[in-house]
Amino acid sequence: MNNMNRLFKSGLMLGVALSGTVVFADVVSYSGDLPIGGGEFSINNSGSIVLTQFDSSLGTLNSISLTLSGHITTTQRFENGDDSGGTVFVQSTGTFTLKRPDTSSLVVVLPTITQGEAVGAFDGFNDFAGVSGRSYAPASTSLSNSVLYSAGTTPGTWTSDEALFTGVGTISLPVSSSGNSNGGVGTTVANLTLGVINFKGGATAQVTYDYTPAEVPEASTYGSIGAVAIVGFLGYRRSRKGATTAA
Length: 247
Known about the structure:
Layout lengths: L1 H18 L7 E8 L6 E2 L2 E8 L6 E17 L1 E4 L5 E14 L5 E5 L2 E8 L13 E3 L3 E12 L10 H5 L4 E14 L8 E3 L2 E17 L5 H28 L1
């Protein structure tokens, strides 16, 4: 009885495999932050982002999608120093560059904050207030940019970055950040004093690997195995029934 039960259970499990659908993933994604752990640091800084490499045992790599997201926070202030009123726009841009280990550029993103309005002539006080000045509340923004490296007709020859991102460990990629603030497009005053403070930022990178999975048994193979087990089980039942009748 124990042998029959084991054979029956084997045939049942293979039958389930035969009737079910086996799904294999063909995309994997990994992310890293600057600063490590997330958050922000003072702009005009540098660091690194650690990403997981593609394990070639998973299958054949078809493409690498690399996305860099940058975010900035700043407090913008200005004072119009002209003897007449005008329009002022303050523009603050953060530049984040994700690089290869040799410091050549992989992807760049430039999140920008712009604020402004019309103000009066200089009121005699360089205090970023009154009729000629403004002090805005802290503002934040984010922006992403992506690059895609695709395979050619012969896997392994499409880009040198395939080797860079392939392995069983991680890769540390340099990231630089810088910030710049100026009187933006549309500013009509000549004498402008900016007082941008607390300019901070951070970045997140994500790498996505699209691949063709390594070969696995075809569904028909599972069906054949299941059919053999079930036939064997039925034969075993007939054999047991005949033995019982003879007894």
